[in-house]
Design a protein that fits this description.
Pfam family, one: AHSA1
InterPro entries: ASHA1/2-like_C, START-like_dom_sf
Largest sheet: 7 strands, antiparallel
Family: Belongs to the AHA1 family.
Strand order of the largest sheet: 1-7-6-5-4-3-2
Order of helices and strands: EHHEEEEEEH
Shape: globular
Number of helices: 3
Protein name: Polyketide cyclase
Number of strands: 7
Structural class: alpha+beta
CATH topology of one domain: Alpha-D-Glucose-1,6-Bisphosphate, Chain A, domain 4
CATH class of one domain: Alpha Beta
Strand content: 35-45%
């Protein structure tokens, strides 16, 4: 399993909303500058589907990151299963005037664990910058 995390100086409501609302997801869900999140569908409920369409800015490549939610505890926990059967979870914990967010997930077999960890840590870091800037 891989875990990436960060602490965000914002309310739990704001952190939860910015993590789950499609128009916000499109603004922070990026790890490399020449990629972007083209479209987001997010049905935040148990058995609800999520789909993030990722694309290179030059249009040469794209892929869908998708799965279903297996457990939702509002303002606290999101568990999911990806289309390739890997699982993951995102925990939200209020600590004083910050929110600790931690995502744990099963890595793919075809990419290095280090690369996946760095990629996802960059996404969480971008999320922090976005939430604290808005």
């Amino acid at each position: 399993m891989i875990t990436v995390q960060n602490k965000i100086c914002a309310s739990i409501d704001k952190v939860w909303g910015f993590w789950t609302i499609p128009e916000h997801i499109k603004k922070w869900n990026i790890a490399i500058d020449d990629w972007y999140t083209q479209d987001v569908k997010n049905d935040l409920k148990v058995n609800g589907k999520f789909q993030y369409k990722m694309a290179k800015r030059d249009g040469s490549l794209s892929f869908d990151f998708e799965g279903i939610y297996t457990n939702i505890e509002s303002l606290s926990l999101i568990e999911y299963k990806l289309d390739d059967d890997r699982t993951g979870q995102v925990r939200f914990e209020k600590i004083a005037d910050e929110v600790k967010i931690a995502e744990t997930f099963e890595p793919t077999k075809q990419d290095s664990v280090k690369m996946q960890e760095e990629w996802c840590q960059t996404v969480i870091d971008n999320f922090k910058k976005y939430v604290e800037r808005i």
